[in-house]
Design a protein that fits this description.
mainly alpha, single chain, globular
């Protein structure tokens, strides 16, 4: 995308805690997922030192904690996995290896997110705020100043934390609805006399529906985090604003989520196989593979956060275009009626 776009957006409109001017935002062209990725790469090249500093100081500690699970008691994961497996079996699902793996993975995700929450609400939250601020500075044609950002961060920290707590509540609610739904579906089919071998297929359809709903939830939540930094909105207001902005841009958001999910899963799988599980050699390769995979995971987090920030500007631009079209239509109707 043409770099002259940056000069058309005023620093005050992009960085301040007030809603930007419509005349400034209309200059931002809408972008699809591929164009958002290209724009992210352009912004990363433009200010590489800033984003690499964010990666090293804020993202890498969180990535190391999430990948290594050194804060997690594996006994808790085992107990929770067994209880989830018991819930699945009593609901009518067969006791297969696939179901056990899903229960264990879900238990690990829940426990990991719980134990790493202090890192997530401090380092990762501050990193995402830094990234959103830096992307906005790039569009504003303004140099990123650490002192200016820290001053802004102190003013909006409560807003960031409030929005993040609401985001966590939305994700937990989505997960709770999924568990409740799959239990109801499996119990209903079991009560009708269907065998576990057949119940597993409706359960898989439920998992598929949950995956789509979860993806939409993550898209809205990521956008809400950016809104809490760049706009005067927090908590439920940021989530509602995010829902309104994402309308018409769902496809791009889903593709961004899919790409990020593939990247996270790939690095997590490598870390599980190459570092946690000693499946070959004497394990000496862990010395250099551990920091390399942590760096790879951190880079995926960085790119995902940058794409969310660029996606915010795209959604806002589309919303402003739609609003301008409605205003023009009203004006035409007024002319015809007069």
């Amino acid at each position: 995308m043409d770099h002259q776009l940056a000069s058309q957006i005023s620093p005050r409109a992009a960085i301040s805690r007030v809603f930007p001017d419509l005349s400034d935002i209309s200059a931002v062209p809408p972008m699809n997922a591929l164009e958002i990725l290209r724009e992210t790469a352009r912004i990363l090249r433009t200010d590489l030192s800033t984003f690499m500093t964010i990666l090293a100081l804020l993202i890498c500690p969180v990535s190391s904690a999430l990948l290594s699970n050194f804060l997690i008691d594996q006994a808790i994961v085992t107990v929770l996995g067994r209880r989830l497996m018991l819930l699945a079996v009593t609901s009518g699902l067969p006791s297969t290896h696939f179901v056990k793996q899903i229960c264990h993975h879900l238990a690990g995700t829940i426990v990991s997110s719980t134990f790493c929450f202090p890192f997530l609400i401090t380092f990762l939250l501050l990193a995402r705020a830094c990234i959103a601020y830096s992307v906005a500075c790039n569009y504003a044609g303004k140099k990123v100043l650490a002192t200016e950002f820290m001053g802004m961060a102190r003013r909006i920290w409560r807003s960031l934390v409030s929005t993040y707590i609401w985001v966590c509540a939305a994700i937990v609610g989505c997960l709770a609805v999924f568990i409740l739904l799959i239990v109801v579906v499996c119990n209903s089919l079991a009560a009708l006399g269907y065998p576990p071998e057949l119940i597993v297929y409706p359960a898989l359809l439920t998992i598929l529906a949950f995956s789509v709903a979860y993806a939409h939830t993550i898209i809205v939540c990521n956008l809400a985090n950016v809104i809490s930094v760049l706009e005067d909105g927090s908590g439920p207001n940021a989530l509602l604003r995010s829902v309104r902005l994402v309308k018409g841009q769902t496809q791009a958001g889903l593709l961004i989520f899919l790409g990020s999910a593939i990247g996270f899963s790939f690095v997590e799988g490598l870390f599980e196989h190459r570092v946690k599980t000693l499946s070959y050699g004497d394990g000496s390769s862990r010395i250099w593979e551990w920091p390399l995979l942590v760096l790879m995971y951190s880079f995926v987090v960085l790119v995902d956060s940058m794409m969310s920030a660029v996606f915010y500007f795209t959604c806002r631009s589309s919303a402003m275009e739609a609003l301008s079209g409605n205003v023009l239509a009203v004006q035409e109707l007024e002319k015809l009626s007069s």
